[in-house]
Known about the structure:
Layout: H1 3-12, H2 18-29, E1 33-36, H3 41-52, E2 58-62, H4 69-82, E3 87-89, H5 93-103, H6 112-131, E4 136-138, E5 155-158, E6 164-167, H7 175-184, E7 237-238
Amino acid sequence: xxxxxxxxxxxxxxxxxxxEFLQKMYQEFGSGLVLxxxxxxxxxxxxxxxxxxxxxxxIVSVDTGRLPxxxxxxxxxxxxKYGKIVQLQFPDREEVQSLxxxxxxxxxxxxxxxxxECCRVRKVLPLKRILSGYKAWIxxxxxxxxxxxxxxxxxxxxxxxxxxxxxxxxxNWTEKQVWEYIKKFDVPFNSLYENxxxxxxxxxxxxxxREGEDIRGGRWWWEDASQKECGxxxxxxxxxxxxx
Length: 244
């Protein structure tokens, strides 16, 4: 894939609704398209849309080994409601053992470099293994989630993972739109959202959001807001920005 291809595809889908966009992505990539989710609010909306559109898209998730119990409960609810078996990808056991052996269970609290190394072992590398056989992947990234995502677009070229296409169907949606959809269609969601959480990752690195913080304020709260990415969404080459 190259930038010119992304640009043409983006222009062709510029006025598409989210549902039309998802249908087009499946038409374009077929079985080469995969939905990657951490079961956040945006992710469950996309799962519901895919189910309603009857698109046979594979759904995968990275189980870091440190997810909250509430996330596993949500996985079961998703599978019960939609009949879709979510494929889980786990970190390499030897890589995790090496990291913990060298730096301890809470190495991510020692500094940004150590935190990103933990994310790399537990999240980034497992995702890279997932995507190695695909042409395109779907994520729940939205611009309003944090300052690090303001430049995100509906279609991006993911250079880090072999120049495949990254699709962000809800990139221009707001938090309000997401929750309106969840309520309208009775979409299962993580119960932690009812306790002040707005972005949910690994249990030790996630807390409820405080007044004045952005949506991802409860993630790695000891770090500067400009650094709050695990690496999954931090290395994409952004194509020409969507027109309003």
